[in-house]
Amino acid sequence: MIEFKNVNKVYPDGTEAIKDFSLEIKEGELMTLIGPSGCGKTTTMKMINRLIDPTSGSIYINGKAITDYNIHELRWNIGYVLQQIALFPHMSIAENIAVVPEMKKWKKQEIVSRSHDLLDMVGLDPSTFGNRMPGELSGGQQQRIGVIRALAADPDIILMDEPFSALDPISREQLQNDIQQLQKEIKKTIVFVTHDMDEALKLGDRICLMKDGSMVQVDQAEQLIMNP
Ligand code: ADP
Ligand code: ADP
Predict the structure, then answer these.
(1) What positions does the domain ABC transporter occupy (predicted)?
(2) What separation in angstroms does the CA of 226 have from each of 130, 191, 207, 217, 222?
C-alpha cells in the first residue's frame, strides 16, 4: 500500500540522503526502519507525508502517486508521532486528541466517544485524564497521548519516528506493548523508525535495514542476516 520506487533525495547542500530506495510496505503491516544516525530514516518518513519530496523516483499510496493526492487529504490520512513530545501545551488532553477529528468535521459526540476509547486502550482513565493539561502528565503518559492523538481521526497510515527514545526503560516497554496491542486491534499500516535493534525486532512484522541512504535488507526478524 506504500510503495517507494527508485527514490533518490539530494538536499540543496548536495547531501545524498536517499539513494535508489525501493520498498513496498503492505497494508496492515508494521515496518520498522533501522540503521545508524544519518542513514536516511527520517528523510524516508518525511517523504511519505510530503514534508519533503524526492529529487527523483516515485512514491505511491494505494497505487496512486502521492503527488496526485490533495496534500491536506494525504496528511489527514497519515498520523505522525515524533520523538519529541509535541502536545499543544495550552489544550487539555481531550482537546489535544480532538484537533484532527475537528478539522475533519467529526460530530462532537463521535469525537468524545473516540477519545474515551483511545484513552481506555492505553490504560488512562478518560474521566481523570481528559481534563488534565499536558504539563500535569508524566513523560511516558504524554508520549502515550502523542500516540493516540495520531490515531484519533482513524488514519490509514501511522508514522512513528523514534517515538520512545526519550523515555525511561519502563515507560518504553509499556509503550512498545501498547503498540503491539494496537497493531493487533486496529491493523493499521505503521512505519516505525528506531536505531534500537531489539525494538525493531520486537515490533516489526518486517524490518528494513538502511545504510548510507540505501536499503541493505528487508525481511522478517527470523530471516534477517545480521552483519555486525
Ligand atoms: P535524527 O538523527 O534524529 O533524524 P538529526 O539530528 O539528524 O535527527 O536531524 C534533526 C533535523 O535537522 C532533521 O529534521 C533534519 O532534516 C535536519 N538536518 C539534519 N542534518 C542536516 C544538515 N546537514 N543540514 C540541514 N539540516 C539538517
Ligand atoms: P536519520 O533519520 O537516519 O538519522 P536523516 O534522514 O535525518 O537520517 O538524514 C540523512 C542524511 O541527510 C544525513 O546525512 C543528514 O545529515 C542529511 N540531512 C537531513 N536533513 C537535511 C537537510 N535539511 N539538509 C541537508 N542535509 C540533510
Answers:
(1) 2-228
(2) 44, 21, 12, 10, 10
